[in-house]
Amino acid sequence: MAEFPVSVTVNGQARRGTVEARKTLADWLRDDCNLTGTHLGCEHGVCGACTVIMDGVAVRSCLVFAVQADGSEVTTIEGLAAEDGTLHPVQDAFQKCHGLQCGFCTPGFIVSVASFLEEHPNPDDTEIREGLSGNICRCTGYQGILQAVKMAAETMQSA
Amino acid sequence: MLLACPPVKPAPFEYHAPERLDEAAQLLAEHADEAKILAGGQSLIPMLALRLTSFPHLVDLGRVADLRGVEQANGSVRIKAMTTQAAIEKDASVGAAVPLLAKAIPLIGHFQIRNRGTVGGSIAHADPASELPAVALALDASIEVTGKGGTRTVAAADFFEGTWTTAMAEDEILSAVSFPTWSGTTGFGVEELARRHGDFAIAGVVAGVELDGSSVKRAAIALFGMDSTPVRASSAEAAVTGTSGAAADLEAAGQAAVAELDPPTDIHGSSAYRKKVGAVLVARALTQALEEARRG
Question: Among residues 110-129 of chain A, which lie with CB inside 8 Å of chain B?
Fold first, then answer.
């Protein structure tokens, strides 16, 4: 099967490779870029664990082929914290509010919430619930996650 | 430990990424029933991943720049096929011209899906439970389909033929959809029942009304999730037109809308349940539309 060249800026770093067309962006990030923070749950667009930011908007990386991402800029969970290790306000809030338990869904939640708060800096509860509806968590019962989104919104607004 | 052969879910396919619509049409003509169009991929890629379907050739429209954008002219809004649902959701001028789009689009999947999912892809996919085909049907949208020989226009009423089946030939591409803009004293409503926000609708209704003084001059109603295609509720439209839109009129319209339908039964609801829900949703969507129209 033919392979295609792909060139993607991942977390600010140029990454090049060749891929089979049927390889998803999620598999390419994990297998070829060794960025295994992007998790794969359902692999058909339901659970949201694989969410990344592509050209400024949150997308499910299991529903994008790597060839489709050629030429784009991608931010994964690994690209959110500062270089010195200072956590992104959303990461910090998830930790402080117990917004995670086993942690499997967490990268997808954090990337989704970071993107959601860019567009909704001061969300109400209904907007937060709608914003979280594309990610599934099987441990927490979501209350800690809701609290974390509120805390992160406040932190990001006062920053 | 890494597997010797890294896991890849879909079956193999040849990938084509044309930059012009005519090239895409040519590729489809060459590969006929072996090729499938890849638009936003938010329905197709899951089906490929689950191997519910496979195609030897995928023609990706993502690089066709001329298939993105919106034009407003001659009383309608023309949305090119690869315009994302999120782009329409964020475009206030489209929302003002075709309020039903602004109300229906937030119910499609989740925001991450709408960032990739396209208007043309949703209509071409023709899932009976999805919102945009119903909006197109209710508003008498015109659907442009392009093949090797050129572009023809199909009325939404003639477009949807069955589950995932449309009036497009195998070598045709949905290239744009024009939604008429309503003028006068108008209001619109969308009601949908789903288990959670963003899930597939168990039943849904889109409705528009135009008032003449206090009476209904025109009504447009379409239901989704109730049959193998979206359904235009002409008898309900007739039932409510000319009335003052009192509660009893809306209830009668709801009953008329579902009278002839035989909705599917699945784990989320029986056929009879869907009919009851559909009738209630018609009345609610009309209520929403009338309230909006009366506010002016």
Answer: 112, 116, 129
The pTM of the full predicted model, rounded to 2 decimals, is 0.95
Q: Selecting from 3.30.830.10, 3.30.390.50, 3.90.1800.10, 3.30.590.10, what CATH number does the domain B185-295 have?
A: 3.30.390.50
Q: How many CA within 13 A on the CB side of residue B109?
A: 28
In sign, the C-alpha dihedral spanning B189, B194, B196, B200 is: negative
Would you call A134 an interface residue with chain B, using a CB distance cutoff of 8 Å? yes
ipTM above 0.90, yes or no: yes
State whether B198 and A133 contact (CB < 8 Å). Answer: yes
Interface test with A, best of B68, B84, B110, B112 (most A CBs within 10 A): B112
Question: HEC string of B48-80?
Answer: HHCCCCCCCEEEECCCCHHHCCEEEECCEEEEE
Give the tens place of pLDDT for each residue, B201-244. Answer: 999 999 999 999 999 999 999 999 999 999 999 999 999 999 99
Please report the domains of chain A, with CATH numbers, ordered by start residue: 3-79 (3.10.20.30), 89-158 (1.10.150.120)
> Quick check: B112 and A4 CB within 8 A?
no
